[in-house]
Design brief:
Layout (H helix, E strand, L loop, with lengths): L2 E6 L11 H9 L50 E6 L2 E3 L1 E2 L3 H4 L8 E6 L2 E3 L8 E3 L4 E7 L2 E3 L20 E3 L5 E7 L4 E3 L17 E11 L11 E3 L8 E4 L3 E4 L4 E13 L44 E2 L39 E3 L2 E5 L6 E2 L6
Parallel strand pairs: 2-5, 3-6, 4-7, 5-8, 6-9, 7-10, 8-11, 9-12, 10-19, 11-20, 12-21, 14-15
Antiparallel strand pairs: 1-2, 13-17, 13-18, 16-17
Amino acid sequence: MAVTISKTGPFYNSTESISFSSLRTNFKRTSSGSISASELRRNTSLMNTDPIVPDATENVDVSTSYNWEVSQLRTAIKYYNITQTATDINLNIATSSYWNSNLNKNIVKKAIINGTCGSNLTGTSAAYMTSTAYNLTIDVYGQILGAAGAGGYSIIRNGQDGGAALQIAPSSSNNIVVFVRSSGRIYGGGGGGEYGADGTTGASGTCATDVSYRTGSYGCNNCPKGTYCAPGYTQSGCIAESVCGTWRDRRFYYFMCYRIEYTTVSGGTGGTGGNGANGRGYNNQTNSLAGSAGTKGQDGQGCPNPPYNAGTVTSSQKGTDGENGGNGGDWGAAGGNTSGTGNGGAAGRAIFGSNYSVTGTINSTTIRGSYAAG
């Protein structure tokens, strides 16, 4: 943790005299005009966004009623700030040791972000303020970067949502302001790309071969059912006319009948889909956002040769290629979808929570992702 604490005040040492004009300058913050004792009582109203003498742990000795004395303001303070520098992972802005129990009091406060706040986990914001607070400005000169959503893969095909940069809650808070400087960066993490659709298996094919039967001198009458016999013969043993070879040895004519046998061969396996790319985030600031390529579909089984030397095997037996994985989302952007059944991950929010406002330099350079209060 790289956080330092600073306070505006106390304004007087133990022996220094206290004048009303100095009280006007230090607490009313003006060098002219009137100042009265009633104005210098400690104000405890949580709806007062700029009390003259605020309620603070350091100001507990300042009376809120008629027993007020000038000396009570000797150790009083006007403002309370913390400043973050260097790099912090998942910075809890509301850490109690930072604020001396002043978060839920009306003293005007700042949390100044000069360094980097990051997150490696999409479920935890890079910086967060989850305790009730009043009159707090989160003043961003540095950067607050949400975590990258992971890309989908063969088991979890959806891309993961990007992580939020800055979380502000709860709703009981009042006057919470996020002030973005021109140098500031509040970026939600990008969503992960969806896993690419797997390729489909190719169509089955058919292969064929001839099986011959030799008969005696009685011609094709002896051909079994399911075979083909010679032209001009329509004997009951044949189912169609085809080619029947004949030849002669020393004593007999012999006839050959043919039967065509078929076998089915499988289509090729489809390629596997490519993995979705991780989104942009604190933990993925430079890697490519392109999804991985799917693998190629496999060729069909084809006809074994011999004996199946003919058939209807075609290019449709080739499995289709796997689809490329979806691209990862850039800062504050959703991950890419594919033709699979899932989705790319949603964009991480720049700021989320309730009861806050955003001001300062607001553009596509300083804020990436949604930031409206919910």
